[in-house]
Structures are given as structure tokens and as C-alpha cells.
């Protein structure tokens, strides 16, 4: 609902009447019955605005900045009146703003500058380093972006090479002093970082600890903060929900885990799901707000004098309900410049519910552009590349970049039928994975059918004269080759779609341009207005 303060919240607390979370530790930690023990215990009131996995979606950043402005301006007892009840004149609600990584996406420095300034404009206390922060290929560029963010960057499990200058920009933890009550923040990066990113000069400066070592490091840092008198500790985790649950159960002293990486939308607070207990029995709350800035959250928490959670309320906010203020759009365009209108959409089918494992007409226009503009037999694009959709109305260059924001380089390579079949099969394994990663491959010049088990059933090649050639998926030709338009992520073996990096002998050409530029050039040539419709080039059957 939208309350009188203008902020959209799920205002129902996670338990009827918002009674305290009761734990064995709280019961154990009660003092012996003395006269002093009968005095009311102090309560620390906190409200946490959190985001994760925005992936450079600038339009949603603009909406989130509008929400953060209201979060700062409006008293917590107003926007969460049913939670912060009966506050005395001496009570204060301490507010925090945290980001759990992947605010940046792609290698475009100018676009990343918007994402970096977003952290500054919103006034985030801290952010952790996700995998997409390492899309920034040059270490000096990442250092500049961190400086622009004016926000402390946290990661305890990144290990820099000796004398790496950028290491000084990344801290293990920080302490925030909120009027006498000090709160500790720790950050962790994904342990699968090297598997998720294309190797570049920035990534070469770091290694990352595995999850078991990471948990030990978090435990050590918690003890370090506690030795300084810190009772309330939050973890900014870009490690995924499965690992977050491990940390909650195995580490004593972490109260809140602001999660990311697995793009899960965790609404409310449910015991056993995102309300867990540490090995000593204290409650731990885990959050995560989906992906692409489509949602964000506000977590309200009251702590007792020992830093143990008394009550909590998790509110998910759908950002589409909020406007993009003109002053924010102007600030963004100061960095990016004015977008160019390149076409118009007459009508568009809705985007798929899960872009990683479904045919996507909004992606098909991008991969068609790759094939047509580069003159190849086939176009291939991994589904993780698509981060948005077209809608009825004007198409401008900014929208296209929003849909395919990665700044890769385009290649044309030779692949055999067998390599193409094997590559499609790698993508189809995503149908049997809960994460749906790495995602299926979008195609141009091909049409294929698979079942929900991820088995490739049929494959056809359609040439430029619409002649159809069936390819035997069980016995593909190891000699027949096709020219394939793709990006360098795919061509160099990203996500394992190809068994190995394309050898120089099979590279037809390399271009210093990404698919967003090809798509803009392609759309300009189409008869206007265009229609985004399903052509069933990828069919998944039971």
C-alpha cells in the first residue's frame, strides 16, 4: 500500500502485533533478578534501506533516488507508524542505507559513472563489491568510480596482489556511529567471482576466498568488532542466499544479512526461511530484493541493550510505483548526454517471466541485429546479456543500452555444427538448475526445440533466402562450419558455452563495438513503427 508519507510498504509486521522475536539467547541473557534488573532495558531503533543487483538500470536508479530522498526526509515513525510505536521524546530511529553489490554492470565507463554517482546521490553508508563491479576492465577506472561513489566499499574475502593501488579503496569492515550507538558493517564478494566474470586487468589484481574460508574471515571480523564494543553487526553479502543461510547458522554475532547475487525477492520475515538462528541461538534476518532495481527494501529492526533483535519488519518496495524526478534525469543526462530517438514500437508482447530460460522476442531483435549488421550466417547471444525490454512508444539509444548494457566487443568466428550443438546444450542445462544459469542461448539464423529436461530435440539452420537445413542434433557434422556473430564473452569461453577460447585461426574479424550500437543501426533501417512479436524460434516443450 502507499501510506500517507508516499512510500510503498508492506506495513504488516512479520508477526501479529509485532511481538518480539523470542530466542533461547534472549532468555539466557536476562540478568539475575535484582533491583537493577527490573529497570526497563534500552532499545536501539533502526531502519535500513537496502538495494542489491541493480545491474546498471539507470531508470530504476532514478526511481530509487526518489525513494531514498523520502526515506531521509520523512520520520521513521511516520512511514512505519505501525512498527515504531510509542516512541518517547528521547527515542531516535537510526537510519542506514546499504547496497549489496552489482550496482554496476558492463564495461561502459560513462554508464558506470551514473551507477557510481547514484551511490553518492543517495548517500549510501556502504556497498560491497559484487561480480559485476569487476566488469570495469581497468583498475584506474574502478578506483575513479569508487571515489565518485563517495561510499565505503567493503569486501573481506577479496585478496589483492601485493602493492595493488585499488586495494586501498576496499575495506574489510566499517563502524558507523549513530549518536553514541555504534554499528558494524562487513562486506563479502562472491566466491564464484572468477567463474562469473570475463578476465580483465582489474580482475587480474585480485583473487577471492572460497566460501569456507570466507565464513571463517567473517567470524574473525565479527569478533574483532565485538572486541571494540560493537553489539549490532550487519553483513553486506554478495554471496547468494544458500551461503547467507550458512553464515547465519555458523557465525555468532551477525544480526542482519543484506543479501544479493542469486536475485531472489524475499518478502516479509518467515521463520526457517529468512529468520534463522546463529549457533548460539540469536536471531538473524536475511533480506534480498530481486534484481535490476525492480524492487528494494526497508528493514525496520529494534535491538535490545545486548544488541539482540527484539522485533523486525521487512518491507519490499516495487520501484515502478515511483516517478523518475526531472532533476535526477537531468543529472543523469549531464553525464550521458541526450539520447537519440531511433525508432518507434507499435506494439510489443510482454517480456518473458524468466528471461534466462524462455524465448524472448525482445532479445531476438538484438541478436538479429548482430547477424544482419555483421553479415554472418548465424547470430548467438547468451540470455544473461538481456536486462530489459521494449515497450510501445519511442525507442532511443539509452533504452537499447538499458536492454543490453554489457560493453563487450563483437567478433565473427567460425563454428562447426558440433560446436554449435554442444553450445546450445550447455545453455539448456539451465532448465534443470534452480538458478537457471548460465541461461539458454538466443539465436538468429537458427531455430531449435528442447524439452524441460534440457534435452535438445530439433535444430534448423535458416539461410538468408529462408532455405531450411535440418541439423542432426545427435550426430552433428564436425566439418561443416558457419560464420557466427557473437561477443567476446561468448567467443572466449564465457560461462562454458564453448569448451575453449576460439583460436586465432577461426576468428574472422573483431570489432571495437558492442551489440547496442549494432542494434541501434539495425533498428534505424527497419520500417517504422516496428512490432515486437513472438516467432517461436526457441520452443520448450514438456
Strand order of the largest sheet: 6-4-3-2-1-14-15
Estimate the strand proportion: 25-35%
Class by SSE composition: alpha/beta
On the 0 to 100 scale, the average pLDDT is 90
Q: Any idea of the CATH topology of the largest domain?
A: Purple Acid Phosphatase, chain A, domain 2
Radius of gyration: 25 Å
Overall 3D form: globular
Count of distinct strands = 27
Summarize the biggest pleated sheet. 7 strands, mixed
- Fraction of residues in helices? 25-40%
Low-confidence stretches: 1-41
CATH evolutionary superfamily of the largest domain? Metallo-dependent phosphatases
Number of helices: 14
Shape-level CATH architecture of the largest domain: 4-Layer Sandwich
CATH class of the largest domain: Alpha Beta
Distance between the termini: 38 Å
What does this structure look like?
By secondary structure, the protein is of the alpha/beta class. The protein folds into two domains: 272 residues, Purple Acid Phosphatase, chain A, domain 2; 203 residues, 5'-nucleotidase,  domain 2 (Alpha-Beta Complex). 26% of the residues lie in helices and 26% in strands. The protein is built from 14 helices and 27 strands. Strands 6-4-3-2-1-14-15 form a seven-stranded mixed beta sheet, covered by helices on one side. It has a six-stranded mixed beta sheet with strand order 7-8-10-11-13-12, with helices on one face. Strand 10, helix 8 and strand 11 form a beta-alpha-beta unit. The protein is globular, with a radius of gyration of 25 Å. The two termini are 38 Å apart. 49% of the residues are buried. The N terminus is likely disordered.
Amino acid at each position: 500500500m502507499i501510506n500517507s508519507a508516499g512510500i510503498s510498504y508492506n506495513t504488516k509486521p512479520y508477526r501479529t502485533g509485532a511481538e518480539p522475536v523470542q530466542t533461547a539467547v534472549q532468555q539466557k541473557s536476562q540478568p539475575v533478578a535484582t533491583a537493577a534488573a527490573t529497570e526497563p532495558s534500552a532499545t536501539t531503533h533502526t531502519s535500513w534501506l537496502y538495494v542489491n543487483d541493480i545491474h546498471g538500470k539507470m531508470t530504476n536508479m532514478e526511481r530509487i533516488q526518489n525513494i531514498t530522498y523520502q526515506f531521509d526526509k520523512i520520520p521513521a515513525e511516520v512511514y512505519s507508524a505501525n512498527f515504531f510505536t510509542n516512541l518517547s521524546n528521547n527515542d531516535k530511529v537510526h537510519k542506514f542505507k546499504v547496497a549489496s553489490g552489482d550496482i554496476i554492470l558492463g564495461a561502459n565507463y560513462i554508464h558506470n559513472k551514473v551507477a557510481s554517482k547514484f551511490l553518492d546521490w543517495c548517500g549510501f553508508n556502504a556497498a560491497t563489491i559484487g561480480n559485476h563491479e569487476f566488469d570495469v576492465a581497468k583498475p584506474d577506472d574502478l578506483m575513479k568510480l569508487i571515489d565518485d561513489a563517495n561510499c565505503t566499499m567493503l569486501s573481506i574475502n577479496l585478496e589483492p596482489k601485493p602493492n595493488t593501488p585499488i586495494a586501498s579503496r576496499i575495506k574489510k569492515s566499517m563502524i558507523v556511529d549513530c549518536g553514541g550507538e555504534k554499528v558494524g558493517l562487513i562486506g563479502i564478494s562472491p566466491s564464484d567471482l572468477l567463474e562469473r566474470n570475463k578476465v580483465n586487468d582489474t580482475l587480474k589484481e585480485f583473487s577471492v576466498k572460497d566460501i569456507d574460508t570466507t565464513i571463517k574471515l567473517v567470524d574473525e571480523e565479527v569478533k574483532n568488532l565485538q572486541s571494540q564494543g560493537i553489539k549490532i553487526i550487519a553483513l553486506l553479502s554478495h554471496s547468494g542466499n544458500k551461503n547467507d543461510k550458512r553464515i547465519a547458522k555458523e557465525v555468532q554475532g551477525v544480526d542482519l544479512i543484506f543479501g544479493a547475487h542469486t536475485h531472489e525477492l524475499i518478502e516479509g520475515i518467515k521463520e526457517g526461511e529468512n529468520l534463522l538462528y546463529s549457533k548460539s541461538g540469536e536471531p538473524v534476518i536475511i533480506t534480498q530484493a530481486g534484481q535490476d532495481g525492480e524492487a528494494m527494501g526497508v528493514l525496520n529492526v529494534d535491538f535490545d541493550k545486548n544488541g539482540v533483535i527484539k522485533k523486525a519488519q521487512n518491507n519490499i518496495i516495487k520501484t515502478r510505483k515511483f516517478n523518475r524526478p526531472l532533476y535526477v534525469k537531468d543529472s543523469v543526462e549531464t553525464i550521458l548526454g541526450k539520447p537519440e530517438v531511433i525508432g518507434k514500437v507499435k506494439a510489443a508482447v510482454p517480456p518473458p517471466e524468466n528471461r534466462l530460460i524462455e524465448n524472448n522476442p525482445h532479445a531476438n531483435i538484438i541478436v538479429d541485429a548482430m547477424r544482419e549488421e555483421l553479415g554472418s550466417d548465424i547470430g548467438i547471444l547468451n540470455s544473461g546479456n538481456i536486462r530489459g525490454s521494449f515497450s510501445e512508444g519511442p525507442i532511443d539509444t539509452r533504452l537499447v543500452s538499458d536492454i543490453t548494457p554489457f560493453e563487450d566487443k563483437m567478433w565473427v568466428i567460425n563454428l562447426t555444427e558440433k560446436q554449435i550443438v554442444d553450445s546450445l546444450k550447455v545453455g539448456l542445462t539451465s532448465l534443470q538448475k534452480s538458478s537457471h544459469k548460465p541461461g539458454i542461448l538466443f539465436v538468429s539464423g537458427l531455430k531449435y526445440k528442447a524439452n524441460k529436461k534440457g534435452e535438445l530435440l530439433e535444430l534448423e539452420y535458416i539461410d538468408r533466402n529462408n532455405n531450411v537445413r535440418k541439423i542432426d542434433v545427435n550426430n552433428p557434422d564436425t566439418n561443416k562450419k558457419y560464420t557466427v556473430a557473437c561477443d567476446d564473452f561468448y567467443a572466449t569461453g564465457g560461462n562454458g558455452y564453448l569448451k575453449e577460447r576460439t583460436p586465432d585461426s577461426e576468428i574472422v574479424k573483431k570489432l571495437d563495438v558492442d551489440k547496442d550500437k549494432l542494434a541501434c543501426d539495425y533498428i534505424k533501417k527497419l520500417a517504422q513503427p516496428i512490432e515486437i512479436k513472438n516467432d517461436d524460434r526457441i520452443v520448450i516443450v514438456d
